[in-house]
Amino acid sequence: MVRSRYGQIGLLLAAAVAVQLATRAAGMEYLLTQLTMAAYYTLVAVGLSLVMGYAGQISLGHAGFFAIGGYTSAVLTTLDLGAARGHPLVSALSRAHLVAPRADLYGGEILSVEPWAAFACALLLTLAVAFAIGVPVLKLKGHYLAMATLGFGTIVYSVILGTQRFGAADGVSGVPPFQLLPGLAVHGKASARVANFYVAWGLVAACMLVLLNLIRSRVGRALRAIHGAEDAARAMGVDAARYKLRTFILSALLAATGGVFLAHYNGGIGPSEATVLKSIRYLAVVAVGGMGSLWGTLTMSAVLSFLSLRGSFGTYDDAVFGLILIGVMLFSPDGLLRLDLPPAVRGALRRLRPPPPEVRP
Asked: Structure pTM?
């Protein structure tokens, strides 16, 4: 087993190369489209795994952060500022190369925000929202915290669905490519399918390296102490509130990053990305991978997201994720990759068995 974090990241990148070469050899490179999208969903899952597995918090609102990132970038890069071209602010942004003219879907010219600037705005907005939500909400515990984050996710979905500027039920379309480097842009055209696959999984690898460094640092030890016994950690001088808030914000930023890149890759984003069911999917993926197991979460997210995007579950997509969550809680609460079948079956039977009657003296 590779214990070095850099060796583990190297294996991840080698696995990505192997998958790409295998799809090319089999003449099935079209599968890279779903694998690329699965990478962006995986960013949300590994961030949620950090919150749940290390900080000991339950969040049912991460689909909201994903949508905030995606919609912010989508709206800013499709907003036509041409009518305000003479405004001092727009002129200043143009001189700073933060806005630039580009062709729209119909061949006309619009003046819109550059994707890099929109990405920065998306992260700043997500940081502000996560901070505003996290300060009061993270004081709660257990199902109270879950209900509070569920309420946040519901609010985000309702705002998106009821706002015409966000496209309401149709979402935002016509999102331009995200130019990362000269000759390298995030978009869904078949000609750049391989390049986008490596961009997506390279981004996942970079984020994983940050998280692995984090959990092996003093911060990671503090988070494990908080998860194990928060009161004892506080007594030893650990600022639990600060660590939980920063972890929550980092997780939200990862989700927003995934939303931004997916919006540019698909050329649009819809309100389905902000539903409560999406948040429950991320929760199910973390449970299947094992709370506190970043690599388990990454593996299960890649597999389940790919199968879902390929339509393998048909119309029962949400039901399958629900059944997976129930099954994992019954048979392998530590995650599917840690499943030891006979003890798991016995443990599930004990959980299903009704409690013995109370004996009164």
From this structure: 0.90
